Amino acid sequence: MIKLHNVSKSFSTFQAIKSVSLTIDKGEIHGIIGASGAGKSTLLRLMNLLEMPDDGEVEVNGQRLTNLSSKELRQARKKIGMIFQHFNLVANKTVYENVAVSLELANIPKKEQKSRVLECLQFVGLENLIEQYPAQLSGGQKQRVAIARALANNPQVLLCDEPTSSLDPNTTAEILSVLENISKSLGVTIVIVSHEMEVIKSICNRVTVMAAGEIYNTVLIEPKRIQNINNSPSYFVEQLIKDGGKVNA
Amino acid sequence: MPDILVQYEAEIWVSIGETFVMVGVSILAAILVGLPVGTLLFLCKKGQVLENRFIFSTLNLLVNITRSFPFLLLVVFLIPFTRLIIGTAIGTTAATVPLSIIAIAHYSRLVEQSLLDVPRGVMEAAISMGASVKEVVFKFLYVEARSGLVLGLTTSIISFISYSTIMGVVGGGGIGDFAIRYGYQQFKTELMIYMIIIMVILVQLIQFIGTTVSRVIDKR
To answer: Mean pLDDT over residues A210-230, rounded?
Structure first.
């Protein structure tokens, strides 16, 4: 589904990606993990040419993006959804409008937009917040709006750039189960960049470990499912005294 | 109403009308030309979607030069140009030419600044969704920057009123000119004070409207 062939990318003198090749199969949930500065985000951003590679080829869904005209590239991007660490919603648009804008860009007639927007918001469980503005939502809700926006045009691929890194553990689990559901019920190929091992372990089938702009290794794993997070005060206390903490201090 | 206002009522209304024409044309120029120029300044900056050093530097220089002129000198300097496009350099219509030029330079700078406040991530999201430059501008940038654009325009309009007061030098008229000719030069201090009060009310009103509108449309 996604093929990177000897791609390189430099930012002035810093070489962020050094001739990387990677193939991601259809339907896979592919993780990319590494330390900060390892090049994992850049690698992801190369997959929809948000960063233009200095060298090499990028192929998504049988289309060689690096050969497309800018108009064709814009067309291709409508079939590649993307979500971000900081959600990147338009703060002056309602939840509904934020999702609808991606349909507008694809020239879907206004009449058909409505049912599609509602369908996508239903999928992420936000159908009753359509008139709210992003500022009125929690982080997890904002990310779900972003997911609905990314799904609106039925993409074959969903690129996730640190999708849970600014969320608390509960919300992280919530977002991960939405992503898992997208993979299962819609068959969308998902690529997740994260520095959190737990996130990667819980839903990925295959993981690329990046170091210093290169692929260190690629590992096939069995996703260990999303752990339910215990948020009760007794659990917190239990955890704290496990290593010799003292209660009622 | 004070006697002196009754006495000059007709002239005052004419002056107010002239001020409205001069400021109105300036506002139109600011929106129709200043907004696109400011947007282009922003888009052509380093790292932005239309990055273009030549266009950026040229526009930047033009805006800076226009704004460095003491306004009175700009008016005089532009006389030949005004005569070329209006046919005369004297009168209210002619006065709108230098006013429009300073209006474009003034507002385009404020537009550029407002657009810089739009989070980079929002532009990236737009591009990742396959938006063209035009769509990025109209469906994302202007939507996200709208309250700043309104506040900037409010600031600009108040400056235009101030600029319009000196258009008396080319026979442009207006409240400022009236205050100087009748109030100052004919020693009718009372009349001058009334004119100042009218200007204060006008500015307060514009600022109030601008602030309110920008607050109502700001959902961030």
So the answer is: 87
